[in-house]
């Protein structure tokens, strides 16, 4: 089911969970919301357990991972969130080790934030345009973002570091602006709430892994070069995985069309007999 991108603001999206049974009235924006209840004769503690069970069932619906497109997008997000924190966490300290002052190093983080703000506005607007392929914009932005991060260890000029920091903030904004749009295009709106929750879970786990891993590499090598190089490679790879999605969609459409033709041929033969 493909929906208009403005449907992301659909006011009933948070009610599309298993605990709720929604019935539309004659007015499309008005719903009679009846929640599944526990029999009155059951003890309160048992009712509480059922409530907890329903909550966990809503939050941890891992059946989404059986969807190949969602699984690929989740892997892409895991790679991205494992490594994209490296510039945020270690860029300033890397600049200090290069001989710049604390104030100059802190300005680099400010540049990231300022350009990121503008990037979210511009890319968010672009992602809502019908003529823009949000997945392609996301993939291209991540590829450029990865290239920028991988170049950081090679630059010794402060002004060039500021430019790279701004470029990183600009391109990484695609992740914040386009993730929801891409997710809605991959799955149905009815499953968006749980799917987005699982995606946030994947991102959170990756965030816990990335910075300590980069710090461990620094402790071993005594330099931030390797963490920045790997960060650039995997950020670009996370965008490259989204290029595969259109190929998968075309294969699925081809198989569906072939299966439909086969069924029609079978029906035609049966009618002839």
Automatic annotation (TrEMBL):
<keyword id="KW-0812">Transmembrane</keyword>
<keyword id="KW-0472">Membrane</keyword>
<feature type="transmembrane region" description="Helical">
    <location>
        <begin position="135"/>
        <end position="157"/>
    </location>
</feature>
<feature type="domain" description="Major facilitator superfamily (MFS) profile">
    <location>
        <begin position="69"/>
        <end position="273"/>
    </location>
</feature>
<dbReference type="InterPro" id="IPR011701">
    <property type="entry name" value="MFS"/>
</dbReference>
<dbReference type="InterPro" id="IPR036259">
    <property type="entry name" value="MFS_trans_sf"/>
</dbReference>
<keyword id="KW-1133">Transmembrane helix</keyword>
<dbReference type="InterPro" id="IPR020846">
    <property type="entry name" value="MFS_dom"/>
</dbReference>
<feature type="transmembrane region" description="Helical">
    <location>
        <begin position="228"/>
        <end position="248"/>
    </location>
</feature>
<feature type="transmembrane region" description="Helical">
    <location>
        <begin position="68"/>
        <end position="84"/>
    </location>
</feature>
<feature type="transmembrane region" description="Helical">
    <location>
        <begin position="104"/>
        <end position="123"/>
    </location>
</feature>
<dbReference type="GO" id="GO:0016020">
    <property type="term" value="C:membrane"/>
</dbReference>
<feature type="transmembrane region" description="Helical">
    <location>
        <begin position="196"/>
        <end position="216"/>
    </location>
</feature>
<protein>
    <recommendedName>
        <fullName>Major facilitator superfamily (MFS) profile domain-containing protein</fullName>
    </recommendedName>
</protein>
<feature type="transmembrane region" description="Helical">
    <location>
        <begin position="163"/>
        <end position="184"/>
    </location>
</feature>
<dbReference type="GO" id="GO:0008028">
    <property type="term" value="F:monocarboxylic acid transmembrane transporter activity"/>
</dbReference>
<dbReference type="InterPro" id="IPR050327">
    <property type="entry name" value="Proton-linked_MCT"/>
</dbReference>
<dbReference type="Pfam" id="PF07690">
    <property type="entry name" value="MFS_1"/>
</dbReference>
């Amino acid at each position: 089911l493909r929906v208009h991108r403005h449907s992301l603001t659909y006011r009933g999206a948070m009610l599309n969970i298993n605990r709720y049974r929604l019935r539309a009235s004659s007015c499309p924006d008005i719903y009679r919301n009846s929640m599944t209840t526990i029999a009155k004769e059951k003890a309160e503690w048992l009712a509480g357990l059922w409530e907890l069970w329903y909550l966990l069932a809503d939050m941890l619906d891992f059946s989404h991972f059986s969807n190949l497109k969602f699984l690929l997008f989740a892997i892409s997000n895991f790679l991205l969130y494992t490594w994209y924190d490296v510039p945020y966490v270690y860029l300033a300290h890397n600049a200090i080790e290069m001989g710049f002052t604390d104030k100059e190093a802190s300005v680099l983080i400010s540049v990231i934030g300022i350009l990121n703000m503008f990037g979210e506005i511009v890319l968010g607007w672009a992602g809502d345009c019908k003529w823009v392929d949000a997945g392609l914009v996301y993939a291209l932005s991540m590829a450029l973002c990865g290239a920028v991060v991988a170049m950081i260890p090679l630059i010794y000029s402060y002004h060039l570091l500021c430019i790279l920091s701004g470029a990183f903030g600009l391109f990484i904004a695609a992740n914040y602006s386009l993730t929801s749009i891409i997710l809605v295009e991959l799955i149905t709106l009815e499953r968006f709430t749980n799917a987005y929750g699982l995606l946030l879970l994947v991102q959170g786990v990756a965030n816990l892994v990335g910075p300590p891993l980069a710090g461990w590499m620094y402790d071993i090598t005594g330099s931030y070069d390797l963490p920045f190089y790997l960060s650039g490679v995997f950020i670009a790879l996370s965008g490259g995985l989204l290029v595969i999605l259109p190929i998968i969609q075309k294969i699925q459409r081809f198989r569906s069309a072939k299966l439909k033709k086969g069924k029609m041929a079978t029906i035609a033969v049966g009618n002839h007999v």
